[in-house]
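User: Sequence in, structure out. Go.
Assistant: Echoing your sequence, followed by the structure tokens.
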Amino acid sequence: MKKLIALTASAITILSACNNSISLKGKWDYAGGIYNGKKEGGTQGYQLKRTYTDKDFEAFMIEEGGAPQKYQAGDYKLSGDSCIETETFSTQPSTLTGVAVHYSYKFKNDSLILRGKLPTGMQVEEYWVKEK
């Protein structure tokens, strides 16, 4: 559950990774991350996906054999190599709703790397792969 909350916050980060010529628009799959220095692989038994438009996002969890379940949504704004994400919806109790979270981002091949510090103090680095 803690990982899902961290992923939710990180997902917000993903939404804001671009400048005027680059966009997060599309669908992204979670591929693992580093949380407070501890490396974690992708999820087992379920998938985390994000869908981005030009200014907002929705995050979904899909359990094996199940339908997508929306667990988070929000807005984002990109500026240079930074993004500011604000969660507007969460199915879980969240201290991030309405809070602007700042991330840095980098694209590497078909992956998006998001780095930041959550308001809880957790350091996150997440890897998301763009769906083709």
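User: And one key feature?
Assistant: The longest helix spans residues 2-14.
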